[in-house]
Amino acid sequence: xxxxxxxxxxxxxxxxxxxxxxxxxxxxxxxxxxxxxxxxxxxxxxxxxxxxxxxxxxxxxxxxxxxxxxxxxxxxxxxxxxxxxxxxxxxxxxxxxxxxxxxxxxxxxxxxxxxxxxxxxxxxxxxxxxxxxxxxxxxxxxxxxxxxxxxxxxxxxxxxxxxxxxxxxxxxxxxxxxxxxxxxxxxxxxxxxxxxxxxxxxxxxxxxxxxxxxxxxxxxxxxxxxxxxxxxxxxxxxxxxxxxxxxxxxxxxxxxxxxxxxxxxxxxxxxxxxxxxxxxxxxxxxxxxxxxxxxxxxxxxxxxxxxxxxxxxxxxxxxxxxxxxxxxxxxxxxxxxxxxxxxxx
Length: 345
What we know:
The chain has 345 residues and is α/β, with parallel strands linked by helices. Helix content is 35%, strand content 14%.
């Protein structure tokens, strides 16, 4: 929980907690660290203070003789002995939310076998599996076994739309671009650099891409823009805590990711009425319709990305619809909270 960047899941935790309290459901939140920003002080939180969260939780409920009716996990590895230990303590109803992206080329044979064995050993201790996209739900079955089909469901992530500023009009003659991403290799920013380097000189001179984010791959990317002679085409803006009031300043967002689950950045960009150019990984194609509210290209295909950029810069391609409407109707935070709350009924 980073006080410098309030994300979509922070808002989900706060709003879900409020929904539970309104319905007289007592909640206790276990996090790796303590947080005092935003609405976290209103939550009943317990921090593991850097200790492994799973083992801390098991020790806590055993030592304090606490029995929960429901145990809901986010960002916890699925199908491990952790869930068996919970059931040994008390027959809580366990609901696992899977937010985890998968590698673009899949897992190794060894890891596939390990996951399938874990599915056989431990999935019986989990009552419900939730994927945050249909892609994720399918991957749960692929990883741990088709026998989980009857207890695997999809609940899409949602975003708090009200504080996302909206772009009212796009510039088709000189479109502006941003990327918002943690800077690691799997996010594919290196492919974007290669794609821009492939543009004809007269087109290349028209494009500048602002990159928001930081991470361990930044030095590699900075070196790459020099090697590819595209320094003037990229501005590395660093991490920003207020992207919701920045998205609307641009015409398109670029997300050339190699692996994704269901991107909140994509949802926030669309809510700002900023179409998204992204890859065919994870749940991206469940929210982006090619040529309608963005453009889809094969992951790691720099030529395809170059062609999209060239068409946009020459105004041969353009997105005309209001992309915010889809977010309001299908991917709002309110809808996400309500769907998760129904799991407790």
